[in-house]
Design goal:
It is a single chain. The protein is an alpha+beta fold and about 450 residues long. It has 5 domains: about 40 residues; about 80 residues, conserved putative lor/sdh protein from methanococcus maripaludis s2 fold; about 90 residues, Elongation Factor Tu (Ef-tu), domain 3; about 45 residues, no CATH class; about 140 residues, Orthogonal Bundle (Helix Hairpins), CATH 1.10.287. It contains 5 helices and 21 strands. The strands form 4 sheets. Strands 2-11-14-13-12-15 form a 6-stranded antiparallel β-barrel. Strands 3-10-8-5 form a 4-stranded antiparallel sheet, with no helix packed on it. α4 packs antiparallel against α5.
Length: about 450
């Protein structure tokens, strides 16, 4: 029994060292063997090489979906019966092409009524314009009458002054006995007649002026009537335009060049304007010459996605080469349901091979660093104090703090801490400790 005890003790000691020291081998001293000093000089073998300078590219690969660049459900604006359905699914349509025609007879009747009201209003405008012209003509006539009456005042005033002077002269001669009294009476009569003519002329001026003022008032009323007639014409024209607009809604037209992807109506159906989210469109038109590929980028990579980032799209169902493009736009905000950023890529589709609903894999280049120092991720050790790598100097391990940058795949950028010529342990660095002796088994140039 005592002869088995040394072997049992050595086995237990070896198991304990494996549990504590990882891949280190138990020393002879610990096992009680005679070669303890030789075992203490054993070293780990490590693969060592310098940091490499290269271009580091960070990408994200996410599933995407092909969508129409534009897709419009077509709903009726007015209620009516479907008279003609002029297209079907799969038909290519041009912008402005009539797709569905409705039959709404009351709108046609309303348009004819509005057209008649417009014609009536136009006739009223013409009549009012003629009245204005007639009123202006009467104003001119009245103005001429005023001028004529004023001219009569001048003649009557001259006659008045002449006979006044003549009467006073003859009256004085008659007082001296140079002429007879009869002649003086005749001169008085002529003077009184001239005075009456002057008074009559002044009355004619007042009458002509009053008539002129009246015609001016009539002309102002005619112009007001014309303005009112024109206003009624504008109202009638606006009502006609509204009726024409409503009647135009009986023709449902394509909003852009595209293709009919859905049809939900037949001839004779009664349709009415959409109400509520459950309303079904008559047709759905989608653009086909250009599509957008939408991608949901996870939250951790979302801040790195920018408009213009290079992207590669692979559509598996087409079995065609990769399509190179770039990010056209992003939603900027993350979707609350899955915390992802929506990014969109526009692709030309002249041949119509890319169809909405297709599945795609999209690789977006998030960042690119040229001529940077790079180490494999297995060479980096991260703990609560930061990150470091293991340098080998004179056969011993030395910890070297480093600042990490961009990580791409199994490689990481070294921002500071290394210059490029150091001998760095490239794998299993986390199992080493400062000052530990190691043996270099493979050095990379």
């Amino acid at each position: 029994m005592n002869s088995l005890c040394p072997g049992l003790s050595a086995l237990a000691a070896g198991a304990l060292l494996l549990a504590v020291g990882g891949c280190s081998h138990p020393s002879a001293a610990e096992t009680g063997g005679p070669s303890a000093s030789a075992a203490q000089n054993a070293v780990d073998r490590v693969r060592v090489g310098p940091p490499q300078r290269k271009t580091l590219i960070l990408t994200t690969a996410q599933p995407g979906r092909v969508e129409s660049f534009e897709e419009t459900p077509m709903f009726p604006k007015v209620a009516g019966y479907v008279e003609h359905v002029l297209v079907d699914i799969g038909d290519r349509v041009d912008k402005g092409q009539v797709l569905v025609r409705l039959w709404v007879p009351e709108l046609q009747d309303e348009q004819e009524q509005k057209e008649a009201l417009v014609a009536q209003a136009e006739a009223e405008v013409q009549q009012a314009e003629a009245a204005v012209q007639a009123a202006e003509a009467r104003i001119n006539t009245a103005r001429a009458g005023v001028s004529l009456a004023e001219a009569g005042i001048g003649r009557s005033e001259a006659d008045y002054q002449r006979w006044k002077s003549e009467y006073e002269r003859i009256k004085e001669l008659a007082a001296q006995g140079s002429v007879t009294g009869k002649l003086a009476d005749e001169a008085l009569n002529q003077f009184q007649a001239a005075e009456a003519s002057r008074t009559e002329a002044r009355a004619h001026v007042d009458s002509a002026s009053a008539e002129w003022n009246e015609e001016q008032a009539n002309a102002a009323k005619s112009r007001a009537d014309l303005a009112a007639a024109k206003a009624r014409l504008r109202v009638a024209a606006a009502n006609l335009k509204q009726a024409q607009t409503l009647l135009a809604y009986t023709e449902i037209k394509a909003p852009f060049d595209g293709m009919v992807t859905q049809r939900g109506v037949d001839t004779g159906h009664y349709v009415q304007p959409a109400s509520g989210a459950m309303a079904q469109p008559l047709l759905v038109v989608a653009s086909w010459d250009r599509v957008r590929v939408s991608v949901d980028v996870p939250e951790l990579e979302a801040p790195l996605v920018e408009t213009g980032d290079p992207a590669v799209v692979r559509v598996q169902s087409l079995r065609q080469p990769e399509l190179e493009a770039e990010v056209a736009r992003t939603s900027w905000s993350l979707h609350s349901a899955n915390r992802s950023l929506r990014a969109e890529i526009d692709l030309a589709n002249e041949k119509g091979q890319l169809r909405p609903g297709m599945y795609a894999m999209v690789t977006i280049q998030l960042d690119e660093r040229n001529d940077v120092l790079v180490l494999p991720i297995t060479a980096i050790v991260q703990d609560g104090e930061g990150a470091h790598c293991c340098r080998v100097e004179s056969g011993q391990v030395q910890f070297q703090p480093v600042e990490l940058g961009l990580r791409s795949g199994n490689e990481v950028e070294i921002l500071s801490g290394l210059s490029g010529g150091e001998a760095v342990v490239l794998a299993q660095a986390s199992s080493l400790r400062p000052g530990q002796p190691v043996e270099v088994i493979a050095a990379q140039p």
